[in-house]
Amino acid sequence: MDERQAYDKDAIDSQKLMTAVLWKGLDYVKKLIADGAPLDEKSPLANENGYAGYTPLLVACLQEGCGDIVKALLDAGANPRIVDDMIKATPGHKAGYQGRADAARELVKDGRLELDAQGPYNGYTALHDARWHGHTETVKVFLDAGARLDLKTHTGHTPLQLAKHYGYPEIKAVIQDKMAYRVKERVKK
Fold it and tell me: How many domains does the chain fold into?
């Protein structure tokens, strides 16, 4: 094993919080947080778990059923504005892409997520990502939180246009309903 590989292996082995998140161990996550584990430490770029340059929060937002872990990390002060090293996606992007409505709800409740942050490579927001894979429940979470509907991808598409193009009629209807509601609310004011 060369020097860099040994360094990366040691770094991975020392990241107990990341391991606890990967194994969905809420009690152990809470214990490690209480013991002062670094919340925003990124995994090395060369690693076997596939989460190169991710924080524990980014990983928790990818995994099914980890809303409680996302909440524990956020409550402890984990930063929801840190992006991964490869595609510069936020925890919101991760939750949207994977359809993790429980994680999305916790991110929105926390209030620190940049809901409309656009990815530098494709211009997608968390809402675009949720729509991309047909995750209606997660789309609703982001819409209810006030996600902008006018933001366009680098190819010039809004979430509604993409829902139409990729054949997601339920998401198309949800977005159209939210647009109509927002118009009514503006008229009332």
Answer: 1
